[in-house]
Batch of 3 targets.
Target 1
Amino acid sequence: MKKQITLLSGLLLVSGAFAQNGKLVASPRMAQTISTANHKATPVTPAKSLGTTIWSSDFSTPSDWTIDNDGQTGGNFGWNINATKEGWANNTTQGIINSTSDGNFAELGNGNPTLTPGTQALNVDYYLTQTTAITISSQNLVLSFMQNGALFNDLQEFQISVNNGTSWITVGNNSDKGVLSLSGGDPYANPTIETINLASYIPGGSTSLKVRFHWTTRFPAQATDENVWVTYGWNIDDVAISTPADYDLKVTNDYWGTEGLAYFKIPTTQIAPIDYSLNVKNEGGSPMTNVIYGVGVTGAATFNGTSAAATVAVGASDSLFLTTQFTPSAVGTYNVTRTLTATDVDDVPVNNVLNNFSFDVTNYIYARDNGVANGYTDNGVDLFQAGNFYDIWADQDVKGVDVRFATGTPVGSEIYARIHKIDPVSGDIVWVGESDVITLTAGQINTNMTIYLGSPLALETGTTYFVMVGCYSPNVKIANAGTSVPQTSFFVDGDDITVQANRYYTTETPWVRLNFDPTLGLNELTSATDVTVYPNPFVGTTEIKFNLKADAQVSAVVTDLAGRTVATIPAAKMNAGEQSISIDGTNFVAGIYNYTLNVGGETITKRIVKK
């Protein structure tokens, strides 16, 4: 099943006070760019030395480095080299780097957004450059260094030059790390060890090498907004150029799931084959032979699979796919263990560690989140929606959407669930249905709750759906749990997902699930079914659509939130079958309204929104 839409991966920023714990107030809709650099953070010291060191710097001699702070002065603007922490993010994790050498280190800052908001320097590029080029005689070299800090809106790049600084080649950056904000995320491990094999970046015949570290914003299109220039700080120590270890196989990408989506809860009706794969790169000095990726599953069913054996040449990358898929069967928990083996003993095993995990086959729940709440998505006082893609593998009616609202969501907040589909032919986003507006109680916050849909919605085989939860109240916080690959979990600024400029992907997974439980008690009329209104929100007119079980007198009334009547549709006899009533809201003031549908004396009330 293909995802047939390209979504805007943009950035909007939310202004506001900064928390004293050093986490910034950031919109979690911020797009997190996946780095194309061949590096992976390794938070512990390698098992062996990375070959022979041909140059190193522990910053004990500051003149080994040239600093260009783009005209800025002061210890917290640009780079500085000393043994003192000068940045504003002074908690233990983001404090002085716990490097091997201790003493001096290089530190990057750009103002103090907590003490003096708005003092960040704008439109700056800060450079920390190796002063004297080193002589090299091989392309097969490794750049390594220790770092700590965190990512907000920063672009933190690692660069080399083979022509004494005339031009620079970017060999890595930190943009593959998660953003730290009040919405969640973490700082880097202290220290994080970075290793980048330079063989593919150094042209043949090169005789010299320089290293540079560069900082600016990742979002130059918003460069006039002071918030895109906020940084927690970036600390670097123990930089080295070495020959590579003999054997070093690095995992560069780790995937499991079905057609691009990983599910931690799968209803029996939506079971589909699960794929497992790894991308690896040989960053050592010798070929790695008989490289095999293995996956074992135990629990409600068992499975053992492996990839075909591969030889990975020096500097080469390879993809390891299991030769068989795993299709779960019975309801229960499935525990997944994974291995990466080779004939040759890896000298740097810390950059190919594979975490084990579990998922469940359930009776009714379809979930992308991992069930461990960590942070939240919010939009301050503005309306928003958050949710995930879901692929449907068998026709099924859905009666509810599950969601978790984080602590801090106000009691009395008005929220709703809404489902759109991606048309398999045109790729258009098509409204499917939504719930009534729900008013949150205290018992519905910080727990899994079910939002009942107005009528069962028929989901179609071979279709991808946006399953979203939104709000009409300020400061609502939808919990996140786990991470998503880009373009599969989403934030919508406002309440209209069909407008591309409103859509942002997020790599934090919103706790928004499909609930197929057929016993859910929905608010349904006995004389009519499938009561929906579309479009909603609307600009000029909208239609109440329903299916009459028998001929009946039907009327409707629209009221504002104060209870004042703003429109009346007089009673009229309608025949059994599909029917609709048009509401002309051309003269309505933008806002939220209730409509009440009366069918043969039975009534049902739902919300509509005039844009």
Target 2
Amino acid sequence: MPQQSAPVSVPDTYDAIVIGAGAGGMTAAAVAAALGLRVLVIEKTEFVGGTTAWSGGMVWIPANRNMQAAGLADTRADAKQYLAATVPEPDNRNLRDTFLQRGPEAISFLEQHTEVRLQPVKVYPDYYPDLPGATAGGRVLEPVMYDGSRLSAHFARLRPPLPEFTLFGGMMVNRVDIPHLRRVGRSLRSTIRATKLVAAYLWQRLRSPRGTSLHLGNALAGRLYASLLTRGVDVLFGTDVEALIVENGAVRGIRIATDSGRRSIFARRGVVVATGGFSHDPEMRRTYFPAAAGSISAASAGGTGDGLRLAVAAGAGMGSKIADAAYWVPVSLFTRSDGDRGVFPHTVTDRAKPGLIAVNADGQRFVNEAQSYHEFVRAMLRDGNGQDGRRFYLICDSDFLWTYGLGRIKPFTRRRKHYIDSGELIEAATIESLATVISIEPNALASTVAGYNERARLGDDAFGRGSNIYQRFLGDAGHAPNPCVAPIERAPFYALPVVAADLGTAIGLRTDVDARVLDVVGNVIPGLYACGNDMNSIMNGNYPGPGITLGPALTFGYLAGRHLAQGGIASSATKETAS
């Protein structure tokens, strides 16, 4: 492994420059470098990985060769039918077709020419499994575990996972290990497996400030970073790009701010913007988000719209026809021990488990809690009629909290006083008293819980919870007759406030099928590319399945890197349409 990730001196000219070291940007850089280009990556933070390093790392690529090798059937025609049902808008249809055609090619290239290794998740249904063309698994690829110690000193440059998603102060676990950890002390096999995991972690901590067995998005980010190091890509950390250099209508480089003043760096083939969207830019949120979406984001703080502003200043056009401005997720808020605000995204760990409901400020259920996190927040936004400040809560009893945990509170947590004293978790002896504490009319909440319980005892639910394979997949397979439904009846009772937030933005720069950025009338801007959340969502803000942000990010990062290697500026056409 090369021993230099941040160059001591940066030359005045590269073949290609990538702004942003998230999954899309690192993919573009790794592909361009693998095809022989000299590449510079500019990252404004001190870490690589972006939001990917915090994520589940799922990559949605239909009809990929990995799933086929595992004996899982899928066709591009089926995937196209599914996307037609879940992304009905005509806009960006050509980009979706390109994604379906070239996504498997992108994964094959990455696995052959970089450190990226992915494996199919055999059972992980699409989010709308009853629609035509859906599959029960295999379209979703997950990163193979990566040994972070292979990065040597550069491991410190990989963005750590959220502490709430680790154990013992830095131990990552994968999806397969979680059920075993829940069965410690009840299953000999699970206890042995968990003991081995903890022993390996303790050995790693003797040499590292956190565990080096990387899973999920941290493994993907680590593998991409290793690919940059192996290919000699220069990475400049803690650096802001002030402007793109435009000459004769083409992007020729960037201008950065340094301690000694401004400096220009030129790119022979072109520049890729991949700065992570605008989740943390208040002005853009006000422009594009509904008021009820508020100001909270679960995305990395580096996503402040830098790449979008740079590109727009160079004449780029932004997408406008979109179903949702962001990929939504309900979150709970808390304060960490160091005083920082924590944001816990309620994606898959608790909402679909049996014995929990979500209620609004009137004490009424408003959603099938086991639906995707995107649909859950869509229901929150509808319930609030687009107004900010509407209150929502997850409600459960002591059995649920002990068995499944809630938010960042892990299963089998005995000491709950800290969470209760801080106001993060509300506890009460009865449902009526719980309602009083959270300012809900007691009879209203009691009636809602009673109605839910009556049907739950029979395995039924008024909202159809547990009615499809996706919902049952996220429930508790060991609970019968419905893995998503159980009564709420053992005191004490608990409420956890949740608010609408985003996992990333969907509105971005309009591009063609090679990830080249288009201007406001649809002409290609020579030398300018976009991928990741800086690229307008090819799903138009819809969320068909797990990994539909990373799937396109890797695919169009690959296409950008490949086009750069084929000539970049010199091979740019003059006109392209985005839909």
Target 3
Amino acid sequence: MKSCAVTVIGHVDHGKTSLVRALTGIETDRLKEEKERGLSIVLGFAHRDYPSGIIDFIDVPGHEDFVRTMVSGATGAGAALLVVSAVEGIARQTVEHLEIATLLGITKGVVAVTKADLLARSEWSKREMSIKAAIAASGLREQPIVFCSSSTGEGLDLLHRELDDLLCRSPGLSRLPGFFMPVDRVFSSTGMGTVVTGTLLGAGLEQGSQAVVAPMGRSVIVRGLQTHGLDRDFVEAGSRTAVNLRNVSRDDVRPGDVLCAPGCFSSSAQIDVSLTVSPAANRALKHLDEVRVMHGTRSATASVRLFRGNRIEPGERDYAQLRFAAPVTAFVGQRAVLRCLSPVETIGGAIIIDPAASPSRKNDDDRMAILAAAERGDPGEIASALGRRNGGIVGLAELARLGSQTAEHMRGALGPAYLDLDAGQIGSRPAIAATKDAYLEQLASLHRGSPLRSGFPEARVRRALAGPIPLVLVNHAERLLAEEARVVRGREGIALAGYDPRAGLSLHQRSQLDAIEQSLRRGGLKPPDPDDLLTDADPEPGTVHDLVELLVASGRAVSLTNHALNQLLVFHVDALDEAGRDLRKAFPFPARFRTGEAREALKTTRKYIVPVLEYLDAQGITLRNGDLRHLVEDASPVSNGHDDV
């Protein structure tokens, strides 16, 4: 059966509690003080079954001193029962309750004109016209008006029919990624422990479920559930619910906290909102104003940070950030009421767009575009706005938060228009295609600048692009290009597929290359230092290093390092091949030898012997065991292939 929470609002002494008692048979004034004074102080709860479902009546205090309690009771309500005395008509607190209900997004309800037996029937039409005029600017305009009496029962049958129809007309609940229950009461029950109550929103709740008490983040277990005094295994969203909790004491939970599904809702000291200043407000709302914010069952002060301009005039709306002294918990689309601290009066309302925002800055056009997209609620628009701000990537956690859905739901809604990147991020296909083009152009530019190099370190290419383009997008584009064989990785790094530095060599450069190779071959295991090749090769300025790298890349030379001296050494590959053969002759398997013995056998020096032996170890020619080495039994002479250059 459909369940709907209906907040009962109106001026003090207009008969709200009496009417609820007449409709349900339940007395909502529980406190001794309430009964003695005939004045509701805390929220009262009653319910009644109708053919179309169940209505939970939330009787809120009508006195102006208890507006916070009124807002708490209206939170989560799908509709309102506005109670107006036929004798007094619309009164001051009726107007404020109507304004608050409108700010909370309540647009469905019934107007019950009570104490109708005390007003001459001839005056009913006049009273109805005055009520219609008073509610014309509110969310309850055009809702049915029923004259009735709690004392005589007159009109109650018609009111019941209208309430049953209200069940059918009331809007569906906001779709949320999990259950969300603002706590309005906390108490202990003998043999049960801590019990919290509230109106359940978002999704149903099952006995035994894990939950979180936010914003403190305390993990709890749902030990038991009740609605309307009956134990339940499962409670549907929209129901007034009592939840028995395990793993938490009564002192650790208070009204204003939220019981919610783990991992589904964020707590933050900054909340981005669409803020509307009431047309009836006495002044504009200014940048940095301090206000009291009432949302859910929580009331806290916050500083208003406007994204543009310095004020919002009565009747106007704009985006703003509410900055609190401590984290609060909310959900996208939740409504809030803003009240001035002095004089204490309602100034406007807000719709929460981002419940876990980063600190705002003025005139942030990207942020305002994101908020506008999130307010419309289209996953594609939200992702597009986030991508424009983030250089083409979208974080799934932020996308899910702004869409008030799970990350899986939002990712599925975007479909193939986006590709998965790393660490919970996605990128649009156009952004990835543009990054691939930028990567190829950057690599081509490096080839043009250093045409003799056969490749470049991947980190160099990434750094060149990672300023304007997010690194995660660059890395992904690089992987795709490698998979498509448009770039290749070699020993010198990454290069455009098919790029051959030898093809562009001039005759003079080819002559230089031959001279360098001959110099390395003559050096054997005592090759000249790379800097000395400059003289030997008589090179063009700046080309020797690239020519040496070209020899290494082609397999004609090998670059090794003497780590002790921090020196780069370049050997001709033939010299290293011959070193392997000479060691095998000098120390046939299984003979063992020390580094010094190998140095003498190869007729080289300490500067070169260790890098040479480490190279032979790496090639599987020799095997080291402590200070000793031996030749591997089935080793064959090292050969890297001699490409003509």
